[in-house]
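Consider the tokenized backbone below.
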């Protein structure tokens, strides 16, 4: 079987771009920073898929007293995610693709 460059959707490209430019972020921070490209209803499904592919990793951020609720997760790009992002970024420049 031939090795291929891993596929990267437009949303995944945007998420990796945000994480590589801004560092660790919460999912809703990414939604706010994406200028409408990412939506609240799909961000966590996309992040889980990206985690399964090895593009991102996350850690629990404990709540500060007196906050209650489940722990929030902060996400960051993995080295593999950064490599995939850079390969897609170069391909987009080469083919002069601006659309995501």
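A designed sequence for it:
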């Amino acid at each position: 079987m031939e090795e291929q460059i891993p596929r990267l959707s437009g949303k995944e490209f945007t998420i990796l771009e945000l994480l590589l430019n801004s560092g660790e972020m919460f999912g809703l921070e990414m939604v706010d920073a994406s200028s409408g490209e990412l939506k609240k209803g799909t961000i966590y499904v996309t992040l889980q898929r990206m985690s399964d592919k090895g593009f991102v990793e996350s850690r629990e951020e404990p709540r500060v007293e007196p906050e209650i609720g489940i722990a929030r997760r902060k996400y960051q790009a993995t080295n593999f995610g950064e490599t995939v992002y850079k390969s897609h970024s170069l391909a987009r420049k080469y083919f002069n693709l601006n659309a995501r």
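The chain has one domain: 10-94.
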